[in-house]
Amino acid sequence: EAEEEKTAFNVVLAAIGDKKIEVIKVVRDATGKGLKDAKDMVDAAASGAQVIKEGATKEEADDLKKKLEAAGAKVELK
Questions:
Q1: Closest by CA position to 45, among listed 10, 74, 77
Q2: Which of 69, 63, 59, 58 is nearest to 13 (CA)?
Q3: Which residues of 38-75 are buried (b: 16+ CB within 10 A; e: fewer)?
Q4: What tens-digit pLDDT sequence spans the chain (78 residues)?
Q5: Contact partners, residue 7, CB within 8 Å, separation at least 6
Q6: Least packed by Cβ within 10 Å: which of 21, 29, 37, 70?
């Protein structure tokens, strides 16, 4: 029985890296949240992985992962 191809991904911020401000900007753009909410999400990721976007398409998830990694963050797609 073939395994069904995954179509929805959760983008998980595992670690924020050195450039916290850059990561906050990417999170803010991706989520549409305000600056305080985006900062809170990034701060929370410092102590444990945070889901940045749920149910993203493969393309959205890959694009967001590239942007976050460019800002120095570690990202997982689940």
A1: 74
A2: 69
A3: bbebbeebeeeebebbeebeeeebeebbebbeebebeb
A4: 545 567 899 999 999 999 999 999 999 999 999 999 999 999 999 899 999 999 999 999 999 999 999 999 999 999
A5: 57, 58
A6: 21
